[in-house]
Amino acid sequence: MRQSRILPNGDREQLLRDQGYWPVAGIDEAGRGALAGPVVASAVIADWSLSMPWHLEIRDSKQLTATHRQRLYARILDCALSIGIGIVSNDVIDRIGIAAASRRAMYEALQSLSVTPASVLIDWFTLPSLRMRQERVPQGDAVCLSIACASIVAKVTRDHIMNELDVQYRSYGFALHKGYGTQAHLRCLAEHGVSPVHRLSFQPVRRIWGSLL
DSSP 3-state assignment of 26? Predict the structure, then answer.
């Protein structure tokens, strides 16, 4: 028998609220696997007990088209109680590593919230220095509304950044592949070398960078 697909819902947020942990922030990041550009994290606090029919459209950002993500991004910005963004550059990623950089972006996203959460839900990660209740939710962007919304905000924010970088570095096609290691991007790297926004610590970039030294 075919199982119905699980969609993001607010069950975890409601359970935490019933336990006295409110507000609840969902956190996710975008750009962890890219070869260029920053890693971006978002924290989203929303009251899912309110009637917001559009939340039925929420999915993990990777399952949405760019147009649908942009439309939902506008909805989230309009309806959320608070949204925080953290951005960590490629230079910092090279210095401290992508895992530490992703955590730093998440801390920055939490710190930039205008509402202080009582608990946080995080996709895969834990934040060791966080002094509040946190829950690591594997595949959280597929099952948890707050995390899925954070994934959309982080992805759209990062896409905007990569579109801006595309204007500065036109030889690399950042607007098309957003810095990920597509064949087109690798061809551009081989032809034009490494730009100032590439991550030198990532193997495909490091290999090309090393050949130029």
Answer: strand
Q: Write out the DSSP string of 158-180.
A: HHHHHHHHHHH-TTS-HHHHTT-
Q: Cα separation of 142 and 9, whole Å? A: 9
On the question of a cis peptide bond just before residue 196, with omega within 30 degrees of 0, the verdict is: no
Q: Report the C-alpha gap between 154 and 28 in whole angstroms.
A: 7
How would you write the pLDDT of the chain (213 residues) with one tens digit per residue? 334 467 899 999 999 999 999 999 999 999 999 999 999 999 999 998 887 788 888 888 888 899 999 999 999 999 999 999 999 999 999 999 999 999 999 999 999 999 999 999 998 889 999 999 999 999 998 999 999 999 999 999 999 999 999 999 999 999 999 999 999 999 999 999 999 999 999 999 998 877 654
What is the residue extent of each domain of the chain? 11-169
Asked whether 80 and 45 are in contact (CB, 8 A), the reply is yes
Residues facing 123 on adjacent strands: 137
Query: Is 11-169 a CATH 3.30.420.10 domain?
Result: yes
